[in-house]
Amino acid sequence: MFEAKYQSFEDSAAPALGVAHLSLLRAELARRDLDGFIVPRADAHQNEYVPPSEERLAWLTGFTGSAGVAVVLRGEAALFVDGRYTLQAASQTDAGAYTVVPSAETSPERWIETHLPAGGRFAYDPWLITADGLDRLRRAVAGASGVLVAVDSNPLDAVWADRPSPPVAPVTIRDPALAGEGVEDKLGRLRAALKAEKLDAVVLSDPHAVAWTFNIRGGDVAFTPLPLSWAIVPADGRPTLLIDGRKLSNEVRYELARHAEIVEPVYLDRSIDLIAATGATIRLDQATAPAALAARIEAAGGKVSKGPNPGALMQASKNAAEIAGMRSAHRRDGAALARFLAWFDAEASKGGLTEIDVVCALETFRRETGALKDVSFPSIAGAGPNGAIVHYRVSNATNRKVGTDELFLIDSGAQYEDGTTDVTRTLPVGTPTPEMRERYTRVLKGHAGIARAVFPAGTTGAQLDPFARQFLWAAGLDFEHGTGHGVGAYLSVHEGPARISKLGTVALAPGMVLSNEPGYYKTGAYGIRLENLELVVERPAPEGAEKKLLGFEPLTLAPFDRRLIATGLLTGEERAWLDAYHARVAAEIGPLVDDATRDWLLKATAPLDD
What we know:
The structure is a single chain. The protein is of the alpha+beta class. It has three domains: 15-159, 3-Layer(aba) Sandwich (Creatine Amidinohydrolase, Chain A, domain 1), CATH 3.40.350; 172-309, Creatinase/prolidase N-terminal domain (Creatine Amidinohydrolase, Chain A, domain 1, 3-Layer(aba) Sandwich); 317-604, Creatinase/methionine aminopeptidase superfamily (Creatine Amidinohydrolase, Alpha-Beta Complex), CATH 3.90.230. It is 35% helix and 20% strand. A hairpin with a 3-residue loop joins strand 25 and strand 26.
């Protein structure tokens, strides 16, 4: 019997409790003479995944999605979500208490400007909003002729009686053979970047950046091996690492103390004051730094420089050891995927599987590698029409049986100590329709367009994005998400700053790992997505070339389902690419699996028929 250790299928939404919690918050706001308050789904680091102690939006509203904002006024309240979550938000909240507003239709700021009464005192928690977000909020409240108030303590926390304690998971030192670069070398590169930008210091507000810089990992949040922490790195002098000492063994503390002063997070304000009082120019990561830090720096006499963390591109371009680890992780993951795909092929047509069964099976095959640390995100497993919901998360309430003559979309990933994986395949159950095969093939052609691309150094993700869409566009079709995101090395499965999307403005560089995941979604019918992780590598330049050329090496090793390919739509070059990819999958994964799986794999990776 398969089971899931790292994922839950419980739906924790409780709309009735949301109504009660809204009343408690309104009473606290009235006690403080406040007319409104904003509650983002965020912690002080703007993490994608947050610990239970930071799930304020879920406690208040009942909505459990990973992105959203609630605005609470004395007489009305609204919950803003993007297109992934409009159906979920409506089902998890009480319609009498909250108006669910698609963020594509109006932003929280525009809503505040039109709904806050003139003179109304509107509050925010400066630790849960970035400086850019505060600028937008300030304009909205001014537009409503209101008064913006920064609270010293969060009013929601004051009424959250059973709020969980902050996490204190143990911190580990990353194996130097996997990190590939020592802490002092990383700090040296970071200091050089600060000096090049004429900066006196940087505050690392993103725990991913802290983990990378100091070669540490932890377990404070689900799906990402993060120790929640802060760091201040001066251009000259010793860094300060602010982390809860309960997470540090004597050995770990000793190792970290070689590189930085170890300070409790409660002293973050004081640490900021010490460096800002010298008049220092301090870089704050505009994507993750809370507005409270900017206010603190300025109040202490420092100057704020808003911009990206200077180490972000260093982190994104993996070194040789990290690349070797990612390749190793993907071979291991590929073997687990082959076992899963062979199992699914044998069992799905029998009619007894559910979406949860499939998620549990895949996680079990990965656990049986003996190396799985966690999944890298909750698996997206959509049968038939559920596959058309881009970020569908199966629960006990939504669990659907795998039917016949339909498609099954499975998007999943794993965290191993040597690397992070993320892969999507779309699988037929029974006989696919001609339309399914035609649209699958258009998505596959777009995937191949990215995988086969050769481009000059300096090319951005936005310039590559049309390569994935061109064949869908030709048929009047498209998909509403980005083509790819960056991926960390045993860190976040969603890592910046590079991405392949219409908004991808960062140039791709050797060593970056990005997903390649075009799709097509027919509402109420089926979804198709095909995802590999790709490593940016240098390509040989032809004679006479004037620029260095780059391309992609696939890290993911899993077959595409040949039964869904309309071979007549492929060009000769596309067929050659696919046959070569499948030959590599068979060669690298075949020796790692049992005989029965190997027999299945050889058939699944055979050259395309004419």
